[in-house]
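Standup, Tuesday
Yesterday: got the pipeline producing structure tokens again.
Today: sanity-check two examples.
Blockers: none.

Example 1:
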Amino acid sequence: MNTFFSKIKTKKVLGTITILILISFFIPTPYYLFQPGSVEELASKVTVEGGEKKSDGNLYLTTVLSMKASNIYYLAYGLLAPHTDMRSIVEVKGDFTDKEYDRMLEHMMTSSQQNALVAGLRAAGEEVQVKPNGLFVSTVLGTSDAKGKIEVGDIIRKVDGEPINQMEDFLAFLGDKKAEEKVTLTFTRDGVEKSADIALIPLQNSENKVGVGIVLEDQFLIETARSVKINAADIGGPSAGLMFSLEVYNQLKIGDLTKGYEIAGTGTIDMVGNVGQIGGIREKITAVDKAGIDVFFCPADVHITDTNEKDVLDEAKKNGYEVKIVPVKTIQEAINYLKELPPKQSVA
């Protein structure tokens, strides 16, 4: 009899354990895992009208593989796997919803491509026209009356029926307004025009005494003499800007900028060619080393808070990576470095 009840008890315990294990598969953790991603050549992704794609070497962008630690088993994997960085969801996304975060990544990539196009064409001596084209909402403050009415990713086109194309116009319009006055913002969201009445609030540390409590970024319309197509597929974020601009330049200028080398890099780019800091630099140099890259461009540390240059050199030293790391402040510094390289000697 005791054996019978003992077997029933054992089955209940095993059943309970099985149920708990199954449940644990569906309990998300508040973390993202970041690992070395891909190293992708750029000639197939960038096409400049009238440009030349043939070269002895290649230019590459670098990516970071990110995944949600959707259960405790992924979390455990992240703790044990080499070259894996773990960050909280709040650290990665802030208070953005998933939809807002996706819009922000898409905006950053689109802006990055525009900046790269302008910087690359201008470095090659091409004419480019840049025109303001609305204001992108990148943040809505919790204290703003716009919270719940305006979302990250909305594009503001008018204020009180007046067209607004750039930040300067927007600030000038609000210059003589007072707190609690209302303005009507007309904006597009996912291609649909909408409007909302927003009460103005006092602002601290701002030239304007009042505002709507949203952080805005200028959007631009780019006009060029020749078409440039960039196919980034599902790559998000702004960190491929430098390499996109170098590929645009390389297809336009006479001569092969690569000289037979395999050249990767990372860094944001602005329209005048300045290179900016990015995330995931340690994961990227690991991916670059695995891919057998010769030269890796990274953002130089310019400001006191910059760490890309220090981090990538530290990671390479710790792991014995032999790739040549070249910190740059501008696209022109990268171009000058490549121009001075001797052609790579082929192995017979």
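Example 2:
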Amino acid sequence: MIGRNNWIFSDTVGGAKASTNLYSLIETAKLNGLEPYRHLQPIFTEPPKAQTLADIEKLLPRAVDPAYINGLK
């Protein structure tokens, strides 16, 4: 358990929660065949621009074209 061993070194509960959230995003990207770094870039930059729920749903791993995220397009 990589995550479990790393979280014992978190100084605060908030820090541990932030770590688990980021770890979850990375592992979800991997499970969906996406390169994590390229998948996280729009997740952190696009939500402020979103006007509708559909705009947010476009960022979900199942809605992303893996060829784009993996640098093939």
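Quick observation on example 2: Residues 35-73 form one domain. The chain has a mean pLDDT of 79.
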